[in-house]
């Protein structure tokens, strides 16, 4: 992971030398500087030094093993946690290193040459391997309003096969007359905007950190709200708070990614919208099914609620979640009183352990029974906790038979295409529950995502993703071979061209 900063002095510039960059960075140019980081080391050196042009380089040497081991539950990580782009792609690791190594320079302090620190210099920065995806025009949208002239270098996936396209990374070069402190603050905030995979746990203090580093430029940036929402890509409620603190109720000027918070009763405070009270954007819903006044819910929640709705609609008293993962759907189904028997199966023992903890931590007590509140305890109306067991949908298993409804939520796309016939026989022929609910991504919708085009998959473990036409053809084949009727519905925000992000098939046994 590499960042270089270059200072140039032309004939018209007087009073300072390009080598004064070392004063501003507080790093002696005559030696190599080494810094210890949680996941590796950082080095600062000067590969180029002259009165006309001086370059400082920040190099991060990260250990992939340390990165993987630093994650919770790292004993059971996947191969992708060890083989990935984290050691070289510009990310929050680089932002943290800028703060750690160049913290004094980023604050704008230089006791020996304060007048130089307050001056605008001819500076350029090169960020190597910045992950921008396919929409490279966003680089100009974000950096040009700050006064930078930018250029970037793209690379083919394979020079011998240009039809494969380009990798989603660029070497970005920015140049402009700017204070060094401002350049470092811009890089600190904007590098994670492109990567959006912070390596640390994000807390509410991250809001103050963003506002501090963005003071003086973020609130006037025409794409300010876009920057904030991409900076908090996985913590939307924090983005709501930051947007409100920066621009009040009107929000930023970037209208493409609007907020979803709500005003508090007290003036000047902000409360993020409760995700469990937002509108459920569920296609083919019955009138009055969801509250119309709320505006947003995460796709994962929409998916689970849509499945729960179908489970209730079919009147199932026994339900099994096939590929239950960490037990999110089981948690959604627990309050449904009509369900007397609830089970979950997954191939991962680690995921089942997390599911068990999730259910017990949500206020349900006991090892094999549950109740709903003190009233249920006093009245003796006890119901069993979900039974969890390890298994695979690629093998016949008598434990998945005899249920009124079976759910396979975002499961089938993880199966190799050549093994799908086995999955179909196990689920629709051997288990053959009266109702089967299947959800899977809509590949067409990928075109709306920044990091994935329609030809790219949403998750590294997905073996395939289907278009709406392909999913409909598969569902028709299931009905013909195994005696089911199918209804196909969409889940999530509807796009006129691409449909919904998730497609759901509800299969009902004939006769």
Topology:
Blueprint: E1 2-8, H1 21-25, E2 33-37, E3 40-48, E4 53-62, H2 64-69, H3 92-101, H4 103-107, H5 114-117, E5 121-131, H6 138-143, E6 149-153, E7 169-178, H7 180-195, H8 205-213, H9 224-231, H10 236-247, E8 262-263, E9 270-271, H11 299-314, E10 318-322, H12 328-333, E11 341-346, H13 349-361, E12 369-370, H14 373-379, E13 383-384, E14 387-390, E15 405-409, H15 420-431, E16 435-441, H16 468-482, E17 484-491, E18 502-509
Parallel strand pairs: 10-11, 10-15, 11-14, 15-16
Antiparallel strand pairs: 1-4, 1-5, 2-3, 3-4, 5-7, 6-7, 8-9, 12-13, 16-18, 17-18
Helix pairs in contact: 3-7, 7-9, 8-10, 9-10
Protein architecture, described:
With 511 residues, the protein is of the alpha+beta class. A hairpin with a 6-residue loop joins strand 8 (262-263) and strand 9 (270-271). Helix 3 packs antiparallel against helix 7 (180-195), helix 7 (180-195) packs across helix 9 and helix 9 (224-231) packs antiparallel against helix 10. The longest helix is centred in the middle third of the chain and has 16 residues, at 180-195. It has 16 helices and 18 strands. The strands form 4 sheets. The protein has a 7-stranded antiparallel beta sheet. A 7-stranded mixed beta sheet has the order 14-11-10-15-16-18-17, sandwiched between helices. The chain has a two-stranded antiparallel ribbon with strand order 8-9. The N and C termini lie far apart (62 Å).
């Amino acid at each position: 992971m590499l960042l270089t900063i270059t200072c140039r002095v032309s004939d018209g510039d007087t009073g300072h030398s390009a080598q004064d960059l070392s004063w501003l960075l507080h790093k002696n140019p005559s030696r190599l500087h080494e810094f210890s980081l949680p996941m590796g080391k950082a080095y600062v050196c000067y590969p180029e030094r002259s009165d006309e042009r001086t370059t400082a380089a920040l190099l991060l040497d990260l250990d992939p093993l340390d990165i993987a081991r630093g994650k919770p539950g790292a004993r059971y990580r996947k191969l992708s946690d060890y083989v990935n782009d984290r050691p070289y792609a510009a990310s929050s690791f680089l932002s943290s290193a800028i703060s750690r190594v160049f913290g004094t320079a980023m604050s704008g302090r230089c006791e020996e040459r304060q007048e130089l620190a307050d001056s605008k210099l001819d500076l350029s920065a090169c960020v190597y391997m910045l992950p921008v995806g396919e929409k490279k025009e966003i680089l100009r949208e974000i950096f040009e309003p700050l006064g930078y002239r930018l250029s970037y270098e793209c690379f083919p996936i394979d020079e011998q096969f240009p039809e494969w396209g380009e990798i989603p990374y660029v070497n970005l070069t920015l140049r402009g007359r700017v204070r060094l402190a401002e350049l470092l603050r811009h890089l600190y905030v904007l590098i994670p905007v492109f990567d959006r995979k912070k390596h640390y746990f994000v807390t509410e203090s991250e809001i103050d950190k963003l506002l501090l580093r963005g003071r003086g430029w973020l609130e006037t940036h025409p794409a300010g709200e876009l920057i904030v929402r991409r900076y908090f890509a996985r913590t939307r409620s924090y983005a709501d708070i930051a947007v409100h603190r920066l621009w009040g109720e009107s929000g930023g000027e970037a209208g493409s990614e609007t907020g979803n918070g709500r005003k508090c009763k007290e003036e000047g405070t902000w409360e993020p919208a409760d995700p469990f009270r937002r509108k459920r954007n569920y296609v083919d819903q019955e009138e009055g099914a969801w509250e119309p006044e709320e505006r947003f819910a995460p796709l994962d929640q929409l998916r689970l609620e849509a499945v729960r709705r179908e489970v209730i609609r079919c009147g199932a008293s026994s339900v099994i979640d096939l590929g239950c993962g960490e037990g999110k759907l089981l948690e959604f189904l627990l309050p449904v009183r009509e369900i007397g028997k609830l089970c979950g199966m997954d191939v991962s023992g680690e995921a089942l352990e997390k599911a068990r903890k999730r259910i017990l931590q949500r206020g349900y007590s006991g090892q094999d029974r549950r109740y709903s509140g003190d009233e249920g305890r006093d009245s003796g109306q006890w119901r069993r906790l979900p039974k969890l067991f390890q298994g695979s949908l690629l093998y016949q298993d008598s434990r998945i038979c005899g249920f009124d409804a079976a759910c396979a939520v975002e499961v089938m796309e993880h199966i190799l295409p050549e093994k799908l016939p086995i999955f179909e026989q196990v689920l629709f022929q051997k288990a053959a529950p009266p109702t089967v609910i299947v959800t899977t991504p809509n590949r067409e919708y990928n075109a709306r995502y920044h990091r994935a085009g329609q030809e790219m998959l949403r998750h590294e473990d997905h073996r395939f993703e289907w278009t709406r036409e392909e999913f409909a053809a598969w569902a028709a084949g299931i009905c013909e071979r195994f005696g089911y009727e199918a209804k196909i519905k969409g889940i999530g925000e509807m796009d006129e061209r691409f449909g919904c992000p998730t497609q759901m098939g509800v299969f009902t046994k004939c006769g």
